[in-house]
Amino acid sequence: MHIKSLLSGIVAGVVVAGTATLITTPASGRELQETCKDRVQKVRKGVKQFSNDSIVLKEKVTETTQLGIQSIKAVSSEVKESISDWQKEVQPSIDQLRKDTEELQRRVSQVKQLD
After folding, report:
1. Dihedral angle at the C-alpha atoms of 72, 78, 83, 88, nearest 10 degrees?
2. What is the pLDDT of residues 73-101, one digit of tens each?
3. What does pTM read for this prediction?
């Protein structure tokens, strides 16, 4: 029973709204049809343009993502190479520091034994 009254209300509302629109419309039926057709065509064009723009955007995002991945790989490789080169350059100094530290510790031990 509740659904019947709801549907009856909806149908009555549609009829009243349609009638009010037809009565208060300043244009003739043919003009109204043309206006509706024009607006529908504009909406269709807008939807089609939106669809095309969405496809182009998706392609651009994919392209940009691929370029970003390639750039990150290249930078990563360059950073790894730079770190490796730096380690090779610094290693002799590290080795010398270790030797000097060991020698210094040996001398400190000798001085302590003399005391």
Report:
1. 160
2. 999 999 999 999 999 999 999 999 999 99
3. 0.47
